[in-house]
Amino acid sequence: MAIERAIRLLLMVAEQEKPLHAQELAERSGLPLSTTYRYLEHFRRQGLIMQVATAQYSLGPRALQFSLSFERSLGLTSQVLERLHRLAERSEETVALVAAIGTRAVCLESVDSRYGLRYSFRRGSQLPLVRGASAKALLPLLSPETVQDVMRQERLSLQEQANLLREIASIQERGYVETEGEVDVGVWAIGAPIWRSTLRVPTAVSIIAPVVRVTERRKMQLRDLLLRAVMEW
């Protein structure tokens, strides 16, 4: 359908951190260049995208309305964001607030460490719920039916399903999950479910750091900081 092709094109623009050329958008989407230009012009007139250079496009100012409306619908308040920033200051590492939306983990907000870290799970990013501590920490908050849906969607083998169910039980017991290199090479993360979240969707918080910076002692420190933060949430 034409509307589906147009939406996919808009999402393609939204997912990029830098403007894309119309030719590149046409090649990635498989649309004719003339059709690509026509869709882009429709979106430009509505303020959803803007032309930042010759035939180069990025999201427009009206797209911000979608983001703000989404945050309000979830209950993402300034108080919640203050807690996240406080955890970033105390840990001196990158932190992320994530939510389960359907069968995906969505990063609602992230605060970067002052030391810098190359990682891909930033605000607005999505991940399978079975990859990385940030996403896996959400699993104990989901219904058994949703967990089954996730495993079917990810096409896990019977052994992988059994391993995941054991991991969920472990998170429920310990209150956290640690992973290394599951999303980005050389990156360690620890995530914890927020059992009494004020948000309207299952949420978790995580601390993300380079493997080279996290000794066993440092891991214990960050684990304690994270669990205390979750208790105060």
Query: Quick one: overall form?
Result: globular
User: Order of helices and strands, N to C?
Assistant: HEHHEEHHEEEHHHEEEH
Supply the CATH class of the largest domain: Alpha Beta
Largest sheet descriptor: 6 strands, antiparallel
The radius of gyration computed from the alpha-carbon positions, rounded to a whole number of angstroms, is 20 Å
How many independent structural domains? 2
Pairing-aware structural class of the strands and helices?
A: alpha+beta
First-to-last CA distance: 44 Å
CATH architecture title of the largest domain: 2-Layer Sandwich
Q: Beta-strand level of the residues, as a percent range? A: 15-25%
Number of strands: 9
CATH topology of the largest domain: Beta-Lactamase
Average pLDDT reading: 92
Helix content: 40-55%
Low-confidence stretches: none
Give the key terms:
single chain, 233 residues, alpha+beta, Arc Repressor Mutant, subunit A, Beta-Lactamase, six-stranded antiparallel sheet, three-stranded antiparallel sheet, 9 helices, 9 strands, 46% helix, Tscrpt_reg_IclR_C, DNA-binding transcription factor activity
